Amino acid sequence: MGSSERRQRDKEELRTKILDAARELFAKEGYEAVTMRRIADVIEYSPTALYFHFTDKEALVRELCVLDFRSLAAAFMKIAKEPDPLARLEKIGLAYVDFAVEHPNHYRLMFMTPRVHDETEIEMMKTGKGNPEEDAYAFLRGTVAEAIAKGLLRPEHQDPDIIAQAAWAATHGVISLHIAKCSDPWVEWRPLRKTAELVTRALVEGIRAVPAPAAKTPAARTPRPKRTKER
Length: 231
Description:
This protein has about 230 residues and is an all-alpha fold.
């Protein structure tokens, strides 16, 4: 490996180190409380090294969000080939849970850390909005819209956004409760995935169209024996 390749590798490794440290600190201490100097102290570099990679804290968190939401969308793409939209909806819920379990700090930053988005970040969000391969919500909404179009949902459920958001809220509730309260001793907590499976299945079954009753065929009449004339 040449010197230029080595420098590029070291640069990328430091950038990843900064992002990982920042993500963990934002999740644990809150976005407002964490400074660039605090991140630099954790990775044992000078703040100048951070500013070489990111102009400010907002630029750093923007990149974190872009990377993490793309990772979530990629997790959803693994189940895109499921032909049944309702079965896919269940799998989306469980993939969302698996993402939270495998990447708890990503999840806390993405969905449990309050933060005001600046104009630059809002413009960046518009880039992949509506593309299911980059926009996890678009993939969820598209799955619900397909189920509606195929007549798989009850007739009163015709708004794909409200159903998608209800499904998201239900699953997020299970995850956030587990993250925030799973160490509390006053409840005998059950495994996160089992609880999520129950919630996801209950939601899908609650909106699934009720099959029309089978038409009754008239019962076949038993022919009466012919009476013979008495002689």
